[in-house]
Structure prediction request, 1337 residues.
Amino acid sequence: EVKADDPCMSEKMQQAAAKMNLKGHWTGLGRNKQYLYGPTDIEGHKGRDDRYYVLDFARVYPPEAPGDGAARSSYLYNLLRPELVKRNSVPLSSDAYSRFGAHDRAIHDEEVKAATTRLHKKVIPAFALWLDQQDSTLKGLQLTQLMHRKGINMRHLGRVRNLVTKPDAKKLLLNEMISRVVKCNLQNLMRKKMEDIKVASEEPYRHLVIDYLNVMLGRRPQSDKFWRTDIKQSLIRKFDKGLSDQELRDDYSMKSGLSIILVFDRIQALMGLTLAKRALAQLKDNPDSLELVYPDLTKMAAKMKHMDIISHAEGAALCIQSMTTKGEAGDRLFDLAMSKFEIALSSTPDNELTLRNWGDALCIHMQKKTGVERQRLVCKAIDKYQQLQCHESLQRLGGLLHRLSKLESAEERDRLYQLSGASYSSAVTLSPHLWQAHYDWGNLLYDEAATRVGDEAQELYENAGQHYAIAITLNPSLYIEPKTSPLLSLIPTKLDFEFNGSSSNSNKDKENRPPRGNAKSIVKELAFFSDANKENALNESATTTAILPHSLSSLLSPSISRLASPRVSPQARHPESPFGFSPLPPSPNPTTLYTAVPTSPQFFSTHALTSASDLPLFTSGPPSPPLSHRSPLSAVSSNPSTPTHPRTARASSRGKFSSSKLNRSPPRHLFGSNTSSPARDLNSGYNTPVSNHSSPAAAQLSSNSSLEGGDLASLIKIAQQSPSFEIVDGTWTNQQMSDRVVRAVLSSYANQLKALKLSGCYRLTNAAFGCSTVPTPVPQISSGYSPTKRKTTSQRPDVNSLAPMPALEHLDLSDSSITDEAISIILTQCSSLRTLEVRNCNEITNRTNFARVPLLSLVTLDMSDCKRIGDEVVVNLVQHSPALQTVSLASCGSITSRSVNAIALSCVMLESLDLSYCKVDDTALIQLARSCTNLKTLRLTGCKEVTKASVTAIANKCKALQVCILGGCDPIVDSAVVELSLKCPLLNTLDLTGCKNITNTAVVSVANHCTSLQSLGLDDCKSVSDEAILAIAHNCSSLQSLKLGGLFKVSDSALAEIARCCNTRVTVLSLSRCDKITSAAVYAIATHCTALKVFNLAACTNVSGEAISSVARNCKSLLKLIVSRCKYVNADTLFALASHCPNLRHLDLSLVSASSAATPTSASSSTNKRSSSAINIGLCEIALRCNGLRYLDLQECKQVLPDSLIKIASGCPQLEVVHLTNVTKTNDTAIMQIAQYCNALRVLTLSGCYKITDYGMVKIAKHCPSLQAVRLGRCYKITDTSVMMLARYCPRLQILTLNGCRQITDTPIIQLVHSCKALRQLGLDACPAVTRAAQIE
Prediction:
């Protein structure tokens, strides 16, 4: 029975058949007649996961037309090669010559017969003729690849041998034929042996193989019969026309016409055998004297065939790993990668992706080599690109070699010139009309001529001129301008090219031609800067270059040179490599005395113009936006109050920004944000400004724009108009802030800087502060290879190259890659430093030495989240900083009481201390209380060893205490809190979250004595009831923040009293898991607390959707709303939020069920809101109006559709945290849209989204470089590719969960550990392919 009743399956089969050049055909009998694509005996199944599976596709390709005497069943196994079928002029039927192809049999059979005739009459003779022209270096594996690439099956080896005339070619083919016959005979003997003995042991088969090989060697009586009779019969049966008349004679021994060592090598490769080295050496020296014994066969491995994609992926992974491994180990990994590519290509010789990536890998590795080894690698790369027929890759390879030649000495430079010329020659051979290759080739020849003298130089100059002439002929819009008079002779005199590239001799045109060498007039004449802004930019840039210090002028010159004399970028597209980057980017032509300027103004709107200094060969992060999308000189208004339209925000997120006039008043900020660095946390979801700086005006660049290339001119222009600026703020300019920009600013304006804020600029390294190559005992792991240095050395800063910064008071290097020694030397140049912030700098370790210079002015120190520092660093620092008043060591897990004791002894003026999650005890805190009596802020969250004794001591000694955070300090009891409330009347912030021993007694005491209390945290203090809450309501009229999560004894009446007494002052209210709370309390809060900004109702199951809507309508300043597990949230709720809370930043809708989302409680709900898509409608409204949303949690919302996520992504481009756990309908399309629009994404949870594949995750990795947490548990389609891309593009990754991703192997895990140094949590449960070695790594 033939079935074809699934339209979707039929469509997919039709698409696959079109790619393979297969035709559809009728099959089946009577009413069962169906139209199929592919063979009739193929099976298609739809799984329970809604995916389609195909089985039994061995007969997908049509059979070869059977000849005379062929077996009736030959159509089952004598199939045509895919390469031949794809190149056939008409599609072919898979069921030709079979009993399934009864319908239109004559047509199908005739088409296949024509293809078979073409194979025998044209393809095979052409290959034989080509083989006669080759040298004798071909091997068996290469022969297999070459024949398959032409579409010739290996069973036609005999036909090929019959047509070749060269003896070396005949011998090569005979070796391959005999090797394959021996393989088949051995396999048949082993099968028969297995049927006879029926024992699962390897020993009998080893003896059989040894005996057979000894027969071949002539060490058995039957050897002569074997070579004269047996092997001939096998060759005749297997290979038609393979033997000559002389070889068919009975007295001729086939052993005389072959190389026994080559045959044995092929047999080992074909069968998975391994012979001992000593036996192979003797076989090579004297084969007639060798007799194999049992130990000579060291291995019998199973030989399996698999898809080329497996070997291809292994080769790509090994290649990436070799790039980060130095020395011989890296070379071994590269050799393994090459062998994997070779295996992949042997099965599908025409695979374009394998050929491209093989060539790319060779180009990467050759940059680490010199001399003959580099030449060998380049020649192999050219060969792969030629096989690929890719002139674009050959042209880029020529440009790469040209650039490398500028860094080499004479001998190596000449070799690179020759290789570059060979690459250009191959490119123009494949595409004679490629004008870019001729132009680049001319540049190469001109540079080479500059290194020669006499006639040789003149010949090279003439050749360069010929190529320039060809380029102009092919592209009439190309103008080549000689900048010096000797070059006028390079263009042949028979061609008279005018300014616009056309051939004209009119005097009028010559008069209108701009003067030679005047780049500015050329630009104006071409209308390159047709608008006034670009023309002014050129003039202003030229002026800027003249008056700015040399360091900034030198940086600006490439940009100005690019504006005045733009280079031509290749127009050909280059597909992305699976490595995540293109090893041969379309970089600009080397600097020569010619300038190519296309006259078409459309050219500049579609092509990126880059300079060599701005475009490294390999980038360690995702690519910057195209320079064609950037304004050459621009600045973005810094007014934070200016509303941002959603479209404007989306444009900004993609790296575009418009120019605006600078305020004439001199700004104090050079660029960046005029707010202090944000407090970032993986759980908070978005940035929270701590304080604002007041400045007359602040000229800045947006965090999504780039300071590289042309935009560096923006920075310099601002510096020119505001020479007295004091603050440089590049907070979270992530990918755009580079070492070059910082170094330029410091070298010119170090004396006047008062604040340098570079928080979140994780690309910054030691080089930003004047790095020189100085040996250091601790080598750093390289993340990639730089084309400017083939031998990398560890770098540390040199104090002599860093200018003193005597006025600097505030230095923020949080989230950067600054190392120990760099920060030490930076501090030696900052004698007036008052604030030092190095949060989350994981390169700072216990080796940091702060003792080089006393930091007598240091007042504020923030080292939170520096997980590699210990007591030695803190003790050393505080001993030399006696003026410290604020110290933060939060989440520094290695900090113990020793650091606290040092702070107590040295910092007697201390006012604020954060020791959250540090290992401190009562003894150290008691000493701190005795010494630091001015303490005003103390944070001890998670310090589980803190007890009543230390809290009492702090209360008795630190009477000015205002902020006390004791969350998670389990041993704290009522008496300690009572003592604190009695002795510290100024207390305004108290957090007792998780202190399970706290009861009403402590809370009532706090309410009665601390009447100025503004913030109180009582989450999970389960003994607290209405009594305590009423006391707070009546006594703490200044209360602004109240957290009551998990207090199941609190009722509506107490909360109503809080709302009535504290009314408009309350901005933060948390009622999560308060079981007794109903809609009545929420209505009261909505009525009185209209200034509410943060509201948490998680798991308040008795609150209606209408009550939550009333909060949205009345509390229009709402920034954060958590309604997780609230059963009655509906579309009305989301509409109210979107309509009345446009400033919403944080929205948690996790575990909102489909039924609740589809059940409105408002009478005004429309019909479409009552449908099952209610939550999707609400999310679309949120996307439309709440464009500032930064946190979105939709966990377990299984009814959310991909279209809703797409609208959320496009409407809310500032999203930083997205949780989509078990949102099972999420697919790659939605994820790609999130990646495209939400470039600031830091946390992404996709656990259980089983439709996600590598396509979506690769996009996420490339476009979201700020990712810190990614959870992919049970995303079964995720493979090594996704992890590799995350390792390459997301260096700040801290959390990665891969539980249940069964396709993950060791290689990406090891790469991830080496690349993401901040990684602190890695989930690999149920990943069977990850071995113990990767876990140890």
